């Protein structure tokens, strides 16, 4: 028996492996099985070249669990090793200068990963002792057994083994007893090894017999050695892609369509990406894209590895250019990974454009499920945004779809305002904003449906890019102001509006922290008597604040609504007449006093012109102060009288409640009072 020390005099190696090198302890099984697969493939390569007489028939990797002996054994009939090769590949740990290396990186153990072949040593994370029994494929080779208990000391001796290949026997330590469970081992193998290119077997297949599950004599192969992404697209049918998706995500809804990646320059890359059906929200579901290297599972946490919007996709990416034993931080900074990320983005955009060109009708039918993904990509990846303009679609309230260019042609003549800006009208909720949509359509305008969570930031992006375009929600103003063609003409005087404002302000509801700003517009005799609108800028800022969880300067502001009174409507004119009849004399008296005092104040202000403050007589200063105070009191008295009239006037309250009702804002007690008042007015 030969004894010796592993080629590291420091005792730091095993603690680093056990504690720092791998974030997940279950990764040991991936490493050992992957090595076994590599050994098997190497033997096949040599056999193909006629450089070995060893048989490759029935090549497989076998995982065996012995709960009594507390061992996990991974066996292969691959290339095997001689005693000299064990010395080279195991004892020297495949790198030179180990002491200096460990010294340099003892505080940054992850830097080791991806540079040196430490996969085998991951077995010590869960083992008190590891044994290797191996026989080389070389003619006349002697089988040998290597043993190590986790210290730098090892032993190696001759052994017996039927056939070429290697057994890795891991004696599980007390802290890792969880891995002496059949279900746990099956779970790990399914996670990391289910698509390895060499058959991996674990236990026996089972079947139901006499009401219970029993083992059969057939070995249980846990992997598909030829998964769909390793095949060429011409060899696959739609059902093959659907079946593979079900294998990846058994509980998921059927995807919309897929992209088959197959690249050999400037790097090797294969894979299949699926577009899932997304609800009307951002469903950034982690662990959906699986990253592989030569069919060996690497990670399902791809954030930062692929562009953010691609995390919405499902599927598999496989590239031998992605190092297997790497930390995520290493992956994210790796130049090959960045190239892959950029290329996948381009392929996704090209595939979407091709689908749009080849079958626009089918593409349109999927748009409502697809748009969140495309919008998310346009907001987070500028290169994708540029390409997406070729297939981004607007949908209008008639259910018709338009590209950006097509829609501009449709509305250019009728929806260009007096500043020569093209105005895109849209609704975020067709049912709630129906009356506004209908009013716009009655004017001959077209209205888009932009009802998803990303609409607001997307419109902001469009307006920044196209400065001559404006996106305006149909309820943000009265129809005449949404697309202003000429300056407004109004027959109601400023004084009449000034006196009507407190009348309607007095009956605006004081609930839910909503501020109402009364405004007056000529909406025509056939327009609604009162229209409630929401300021486009403030609403967008609040939407962005809620979406981003920030921008509190706007997000925390109370809602502010415009209550636009139609000065041309007969019922509004009736309120004006009622006001004159009820308050005519009282308002005339107040107005007379106000006019006289304002004229006196104006005369005193004019007398002050050109004088220094100390040159103005004290009596004039005192008189000015008294007049200003008296005018303010008269103005307040006037507003109070007008407010009291508004509260007493049933028609005023009825018109305001009708506007609230049209916006779904009249509820509870207020709605009950409205119904009772309606009955009284009808009598």
From TrEMBL:
Database matches in InterPro entries: HATPase_C_sf, Heat_shock_protein_90_CS, Hsp90_fam, Hsp90_N, Ribosomal_Su5_D2-typ_SF
Region Disordered, residue ranges: 603-622
Pfam families: HATPase_c_3 (PF13589), HSP90 (PF00183)
Domain of life of the organism encoding this protein: Bacteria
Membrane spanning stretches: none
Residues that bind ATP: 31, 35, 76, 81, 96-97, 166, 328
Keywords associated with the record: ATP-binding, Chaperone, Cytoplasm, Nucleotide-binding, Stress response
A molecular function (GO) term: ATP binding
Family, per entry: Belongs to the heat shock protein 90 family.
Name listed for the protein in its UniProt record: Chaperone protein HtpG
């Amino acid at each position: 028996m030969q004894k010796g020390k592993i080629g590291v005099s420091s005792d730091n190696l095993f603690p680093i492996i056990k504690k720092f090198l791998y974030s997940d302890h279950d990764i040991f099984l991936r490493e050992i099985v992957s090595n076994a697969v590599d050994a098997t493939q190497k033997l096949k390569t040599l056999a193909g070249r006629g450089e070995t007489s060893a048989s490759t028939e029935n090549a497989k990797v076998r995982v065996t669990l012995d709960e009594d002996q507390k061992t996990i054994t991974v066996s292969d009939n691959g290339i095997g090793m001689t005693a000299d090769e064990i010395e080279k590949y195991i004892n020297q740990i495949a790198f030179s200068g180990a002491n200096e290396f460990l010294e340099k990186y003892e505080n940054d153990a992850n830097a080791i990963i991806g540079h040196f072949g430490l996969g085998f040593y991951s077995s010590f994370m869960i083992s008190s002792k590891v044994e290797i029994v191996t026989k080389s494929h070389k003619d006349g080779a002697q089988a040998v057994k290597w043993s190590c208990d986790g210290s730098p000391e090892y032993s190696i001796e001759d052994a017996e083994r039927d056939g070429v290949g290697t057994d890795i026997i891991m004696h599980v330590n007390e802290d890792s007893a969880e891995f002496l469970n059949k279900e746990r081992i099956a779970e790990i193998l399914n996670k990391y090894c289910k698509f390895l290119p060499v058959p991996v077997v674990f236990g026996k297949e089972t079947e139901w017999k006499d009401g219970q599950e029993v083992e059969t004599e057939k070995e249980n192969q846990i992997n598909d050695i030829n998964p769909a992404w390793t095949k060429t697209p011409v060899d696959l049918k739609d059902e093959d892609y659907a079946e593979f998706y079900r294998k990846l995500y058994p509980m998921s809804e059927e995807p919309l369509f897929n992209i088959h990646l197959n690249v050999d320059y400037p790097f090797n890359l294969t894979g299949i990406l699926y577009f899932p059906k997304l609800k009307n929200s951002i469903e950034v579901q982690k662990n959906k894209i699986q990253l592989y290297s030569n069919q060996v599972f690497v990670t399902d946490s791809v954030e930062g590895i692929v562009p953010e919007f691609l995390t919405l996709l499902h599927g598999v990416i496989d590239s031998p250019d992605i190092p297997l034993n790497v930390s995520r931080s290493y992956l994210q900074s790796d130049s090959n990974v960045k190239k892959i990320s950029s290329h996948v983005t381009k392929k996704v955009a090209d595939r979407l454009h091709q689908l749009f060109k080849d079958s626009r009708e089918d593409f349109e039918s999927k748009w409502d499920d697809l748009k969140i993904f495309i919008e998310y990509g346009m907001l987070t990846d500028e290169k994708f945004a540029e390409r997406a303009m070729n297939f981004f679609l607007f949908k209008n309230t008639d259910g018709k779809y338009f590209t950006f260019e097509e829609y501009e042609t449709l509305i250019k003549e009728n929806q260009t305002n007096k500043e020569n800006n093209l105005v895109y009208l849209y609704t975020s909720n067709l049912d709630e904003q129906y009356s506004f949509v209908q009013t716009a359509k009655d004017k001959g305008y077209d209205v888009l449906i932009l009802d998803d969570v990303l609409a607001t930031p997307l419109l902001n992006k469009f307006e920044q890019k196209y400065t001559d375009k404006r996106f305006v929600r149909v309820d943000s103003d009265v129809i005449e102001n949404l697309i202003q063609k000429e300056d407004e003409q109004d027959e109601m005087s400023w004084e009449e509006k000034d006196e009507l404002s407190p009348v309607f302000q007095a009956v605006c509801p004081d609930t839910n922290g909503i501020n109402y700003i009364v405004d007056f517009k000529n909406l025509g005799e056939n327009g609604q008597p009162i229209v409630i609108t929401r300021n486009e800028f403030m609403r967008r800022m609040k939407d962005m604040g809620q979406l981003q969880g920030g921008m509190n300067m706007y997000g925390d502001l109370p809602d502010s609504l415009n209550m636009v009174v139609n000065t041309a409507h007969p019922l509004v004119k009736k309120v004006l007449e009622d006001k004159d009849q009820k308050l005519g004399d009282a308002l005339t008296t107040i107005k007379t006093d106000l006019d006289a005092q304002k004229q006196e104040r104006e005369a005193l202000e004019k007398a002050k012109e050109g004088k220094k403050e100390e040159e103005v007589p004290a009596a004039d200063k005192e008189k000015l102060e008294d007049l200003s105070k008296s005018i303010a009191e008269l103005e307040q008295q006037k507003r109070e009288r007008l407010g009291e009239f508004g509260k007493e006037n049933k028609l005023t309250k009825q018109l305001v409640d009708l506007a609230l009702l049209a916006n779904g804002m009249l509820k509870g007690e207020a709605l009950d009072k409205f119904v009772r008042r309606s009955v009284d007015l009808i009598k």
